[in-house]
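Contributing new records

If you add data, match the layout below exactly. Sequence lines come first and carry their own label; structure lines follow with theirs. Keep one chain per record. Anything else will be rejected by the validation script.
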Amino acid sequence: FSYIILAEALGYGGAALFIILKKQFEAPFDLRLGFLLILASLFLLFLPFSPLVVLFIYTIVRISGVIMFFVPYNILFFRSTQESKRLHKMTVMWSIGSVVGIIAPIIGGYIFFRFGVGIFVGIAIGILCLALFLTLFIKKEVYKYKFIEVITHLKGVRTTTMIDGASENISGILITLYLLSFIKDEFDFGKLLSVIALMSIIFSFKLASFSDKYNKRFEFIWPLSFLSAVIMISFYFVSSFWAVIILVILFKFVSTLLNPVRSNIILDKIDNVPLTWIARDVFLNVGRALALFFVFVISYYGFLNESFIFAGLLFAIFPFIVYRKKIYSRQPTNQGL
């Protein structure tokens, strides 16, 4: 497990460095390159090397592809965001990922076990080719930036952005690895999580509508963050199958509500320009890499369960930092702090 975590850390650390050195993104070119890198990562699984070598190569290439895609995607997706519906738009983005995350594993798992790896890879290639075709309808745009612009642009929200990336990523990886020790029937449990996720998405839109209407953000951030912290720390103290299942279900529900509200700080407090989304990805990935390296070290020495306490602390300190930096004090929105 520790080497899986290390591979993820190297992937995200490399992605942050790559964005800084790249100095420009271009749509739709980088969207296509992202798709192609993800496609290439699938073929890398068939390399005739040791599983450990394949793991590192696959993870780094896959993460690079995801980052190459999502930087221009976020720029294009949030461009037309209305002032009064910022959280609603962020919830839509998270919901798209959640719905795909619900449907893809179930359908993919069925195809893989029913028809074999050849058909599975063939369908995956077909979907990626369709996505590449759709990029033909995107107008060419170039987003240039400098290193100093990237590291100074998110003034006031750099720390919260790093913790956002770290806690969301660490919690997902830890729960996935932990479940490998318990779950025997992945398909049935996947269906249960799918129902929970769909219910959570519905509540997320209700929360977004209320929050946008009454301009309430911190009132939701702190209770949801503390609930997430309590649930994550609880993983350290439980060992029974059903206790773990209950915690996973609770965390899935709470995190689906929390993620859009927490990520929306960027839209609330920083100008919605291309540089914002480029800098955001740098700090998200720096936070992920640092947290993953720390978890790798302690898990390497046999303290994987203790990592849940670390993840819980990340969730717990988030609202304190938001409060300390006065991110949601009575100040004009879209201003650097």
